[in-house]
Amino acid sequence: MAVEISTTDSQDYKFNPLNFGSLHFTVKAPNDAHIVLSATAENKPPKYEVFLGGWGNTKSAIRKNNEQPDKVIVDTPKILNGGEAKGFWIKWGGGFIGVGKQGEENPFMSWQDDESLNVTYYGVRTGWGATGVWTIEDNIYINTEDSMDYISRVILHGSISFSVDSANDAHIALTTKDKESEPMIEVFLGGWKNSASAIRYNKQTPDKVRIDTPQILSKDTPKKFIISWRDGIIEVFRDNSKLFEWKDSNPFSISHYGIRTCWGAVGNWRIHGAADEKFKSQIVSTPKPKPSKGKAPPAAAPGWNIDGPTLGPVTWVHASNGQIPSNALPGGFDVNNEQLYVARAEHNGALIPGKLVPSHGVVYVAWGGVENPKENYEVLCNCTGTWVKANDGEIPVGALSSGHTEDGEPLFVGRGEIDGSLTVGKVQPSHSVCYVPYGGLEVPLNDYEVLVA
Fold first, then answer.
1. 213 vs 237, 247, 256, 322, CA distance in Å?
2. Radius of gyration in angstroms for the set of CA atoms belonging to the chain, rounded to a whole number
3. How many CA atoms lie within 13 A of 335 on its CB side?
4. Which of 106, 137, 168 is the last residue in one of the domains?
């Protein structure tokens, strides 16, 4: 149910509680529509503020704790309209905050915080001469036809809560892309003429789990479900009770969910967002793979810089704000054919290989399910290495650790093809993939290339 809010020209926010890690809304205002995300219903730190249409409806920004300069400021001429409601979304999680336009999947501005704030309230206001009319959508409504095609959406957190009314066969897919692709986990609710439910992996049969659930769905009454995933454990709940679970021995980073109804059924879905903690099982923790402390064998001359940033022919050169040092190593190209360079940056205790995008003025590194922009970074220079094909976590002889996770596991420079780009990222052997930062997300690739000397 939508919440309607009117705001005057005031510096005071109107607060409401939040139930999950995203906010979808429309606002009709000529300029300066402001949103605060905070732990309490008060305008005080810790908090994030999002300013839409500031500076005379020419720019938008993200600010933390009243600190200046703003963390992000972008040109957004005429993004607001005093005579027409404009739609936006804000998503956050793991320190990431992104702001996008309604109907667009990627944010037009985002920022990665070094810490993660506990956001439980949002507030809205208009100022600098503006008044506003807001419609806050606390749910997402989707109608599905009788079709085998999934309708996909981005998800930044580890669970999804939803209601659906359907006669049978309400299906949910958990994937790494906005379309069907491997790896993929499917949850079938009310299949087999509304008699059973199941979990299927990569469309393989027999199903990983299948249980009898007679009349679990209804075409006249919405039924509420929750799916959560953590450490490879997929859990499915109905109301407060767990229906079934399955342990994936090779967990992957889930960035999208898809929904569909089929086998003669249509459906009306209401996506509530992330699940409340009370619905999650307390027995979901599994031991993480123990990171290897060893390195791949050193390569022959001209060789890598093994002992530090100043020895040997290969060096990591400090740079910032889009700077490209002399003899920087090209690593690929973006979808617009812009040259990308091999770089690395510190993030949350890790040192992560990633891609330098000069026109953006940052290096992007993959971590926590999203791509994280870093203004300060190091660029690989004086390197005469080659790219060797690999897959499923393989590290060719001649590769050398070029970073590490927050737990000390070595990371290697990798790259892979995605949507017509050739994108640089990190190979994490314990996860058996190369993660590349792309489209705002941390995208896992099973097939990739590794940089070796």
1. 12, 20, 26, 56
2. 23
3. 6
4. 137
- Mark whether 129 and 171 lie in a shared domain: no
**Domain annotation covers residue 433:** yes
Task: Classify each residue of 404-437 as buried b or exposed e, where b means 16 or more C-beta atoms within 10 Å of its C-beta.
Answer: bbeeebbbbbbbbebeebbbbbbbbbebbbbbbb
Which residue, among 332, 322, 359, 345, has the nearest Cα to 418 in the 3D structure?
332
**Residue 331 has which token pair?**
């690593």
pTM metric for this prediction: 0.43
157-183 tens-digit pLDDT? 577 888 999 999 999 999 988 788 889
Per-residue CA distances from 436 to 145, 267, 290, 294 (Å): 34, 35, 22, 23
Count of other CB atoms within 10 angstroms of residue 41: 14
**Structure confidence at residue 434 (pLDDT):** 94
126 within a domain of the structure (yes/no): yes
Residue 184's domain is classified under what CATH number?
2.60.120.200
Beta-bridge partners for 172: 187, 259
Note down the domain range covering 438. Answer: 315-452
Residue 158, token pair as written in the block: 């580890």
Pairing mode, if any, of strands 132-137 and 2-7?
antiparallel
Number of domains in the chain: 3
* Residue 136 pLDDT exceeds 90: no
